[in-house]
Design a protein that fits this description.
The chain is α/β, with parallel strands linked by helices and 515 residues long. The chain contains six helices and 34 strands. The chain is 18% helix and 36% strand. The chain has a 21-stranded mixed β-sheet that branches. The chain has a four-stranded antiparallel β-sheet with strand order 1-2-3-4. Helix 4 packs antiparallel against helix 5 (412-442). It is elongated. It starts with 13 loop residues before the first helix and ends with a helix. Mean pLDDT is 86; it is low at 1-20.
Length: 515
């Protein structure tokens, strides 16, 4: 068979057909026969002219046509009608006596994503009561390194066509999908013989995003404005950057760095292993938490709760806030008053307290004691001890001589027995909490001394604690000076100013350069 180039055009106008290829042109017994193909070769037409007195027969007509055209392709019903028409007329023009089939192009290659690509088009779902949670909008899916994120299907081969003469017309192959990938997505061949698609696998943690026509896994989520109802709360495996503010009620949970270029209003931020940086002010409420595995940076914090394993850096003010640092408080140019500050290594502050002698507390403790986990155990332990004391007071003399309870009459006897049983339960709770506390303290860092350095002023009203010892100023103390608490001597000592922040800054720069 002869192969022809594929085409999708169909021509019906006689002049276009006459300009196409002539297959047969013959005269026999006064009959002029011409068979010709349309330009797309999918239709075969017949022109027959009869001279006066000549007779046309189906056998003769078929004999001429079958010399070039397979009989099985001919439309014999049409040929019989042509012969019948020639009995009345001298010519029959443009009768279709055979048809072919157009080639069908192959299916285009296809990209099938198995994860949701970042799209700032919220997916809001209502609960059974019709309430929509505006903080959970599902803008993307978290992707882990090694996760299969998609399939890339190759183009199909297509189905060949046939001309009206039975010759094959090759089909065009489908278009290859033009996906562009960067190094964060690995393209792998099929992993089984029964599949044709390639596998797309993530080479790092992050989210799937298309930037400038390139599909990639990004380790940082960028919010172009404020974090609000347009984006909802964020829970991301990588880092998060917010160009504006974090509005009330919207939270960020990330595994890496969190950067907010504006302010944080009554919101919670949590970073598993990265730094948390707020260029503006953190305004907190009772249940808001900022918790991180790295350092925390802010211009100011107010009514906030901060707990990080690293250092805390504040440049202007810490007002009525609880700040827990597993390392040091670096606030050389700031003022801190009200609230509570706990640090494991030390603290450098511009002004500590204020001239109204507002009550403030600084605790120089171990890295374990700065954590909320330790604080919760302490609170629970104190509550248990208070409950135990209350039970003892109700038992009165029966607390030390419980055998005499059997001499009491009902219902007082049963009441005392219930109190005894409750005392055992609460005492067991005290023992369990003290054991938890001991286990936590086993892992604390061993630091021989802790330093509190004041650049400008330490005001009365500030209570500084270390272990069981306390230091407070009866009058404003002008800096610069440092208070050293020595573990071995278990005492406070006022000394010359120790600039602890400089060493921490230098260490941080060196670590950044190494990484």
């Amino acid at each position: 068979m002869t192969s022809l180039s594929p085409t999708s055009k169909n021509y019906e106008h006689p002049s276009e057909c006459m300009a196409a290829d002539t297959v047969i042109e013959e005269q026999r017994d006064g009959i002029s026969i011409r068979a010709y193909l349309s330009e797309d070769k999918l239709k075969l037409y017949l022109d027959v002219k009869r001279e006066p007195g000549a007779a046309a027969s189906l056998v003769a007509l078929t004999d001429v046509l079958s010399s070039r055209i397979p009989k099985e392709l001919l439309a014999f019903g049409v040929l019989r009608d042509v012969v019948k028409s020639l009995e009345k007329d001298t010519e029959v023009l443009k009768r279709r006596i055979a048809s072919g089939s157009a080639p069908q192009p192959g299916r285009d290659g296809k990209l099938l994503l198995l994860v949701k690509k970042l799209h700032f088009q919220p997916e809001m779902k209502a609960d059974s009561k019709g309430k929509v949670d505006m903080t959970s909008l599902h803008l993307f899916e978290n992707i882990r390194e090694g996760q299969i994120i998609g399939r890339l299907y190759p183009p199909g081969e297509g189905t060949p066509g046939r001309t009206a003469l039975g010759e094959e017309i090759p089909a065009a192959e489908g278009a290859v999908h033009g996906v562009v990938l960067d190094e964060s997505i690995h393209r792998e061949p099929p992993d089984r013989e029964d599949v044709r698609y390639e596998i797309l696998r993530a080479t790092r943690n992050g989210l799937l995003e298309e930037r400038n026509g390139t599909l990639q896994i990004n380790e940082e989520l960028s919010i172009s404005g404020d974090l609000d109802h347009r984006f909802g709360s964020i829970d991301f495996i990588g880092g998060v950057r917010v160009a504006g503010d974090v509005q009330p009620g919207f939270s960020i949970r990330a595994e890496k760095n969190i950067t907010v270029h504006g302010n944080v209003y009554q919101s919670s931020l949590s970073s598993k292993s990265g730094d948390i940086r707020v260029d503006g002010i953190v305004f907190g409420e009772e249940n808001d938490r900022i918790v991180g595995g790295g350092d925390f940076f802010a211009r100011s914090v107010s009514e906030a709760y901060i707990e990080v394993l690293g250092n805390v850096w504040i440049t202007e003010e810490a007002r009525n806030s609880t700040v827990r640092s597993g390392k040091a408080i670096c606030a050389r140019t700031a003022q801190a008053f009200g609230g509570k500050i706990l640090c494991a290594v030390g603290m450098e502050i511009g002004y500590l307290g204020n001239d109204t002698e507002l009550s403030s507390e600084v605790i120089l403790s171990s890295d374990v004691e700065t954590t909320s986990e330790y604080a919760l155990i302490e609170v629970a332990l104190q509550n248990h001890l208070k409950a135990l004391s209350l039970i003892e007071s109700h038992l009165g003399p029966y607390s030390t001589n419980s055998d005499r309870i059997q001499l009491l009459k009902s219902p007082l006897r049963e009441k005392m027995e219930q109190l005894l049983s409750k005392r055992v339960s609460v005492a067991n709770g005290v023992a369990a909490l003290e054991e938890k506390k001991r286990q936590l303290l086993k892992g604390m860092s061993d630091i021989e001394s802790r330093v509190l350095s004041v650049v400008e002023t330490l005001y009365p009203g500030v209570q500084i604690h270390a272990a069981e010892h306390q230091f407070s100023a009866g009058e404003p103390l002008q800096g610069p000076f440092s208070l050293l608490w020595k573990l071995q001597e278990n005492t406070f000592e006022k000394s010359e100013y120790v600039p602890i922040q400089e060493g921490i800054e230098r260490e941080r720069r060196e670590n950044e350069e190494e990484s």
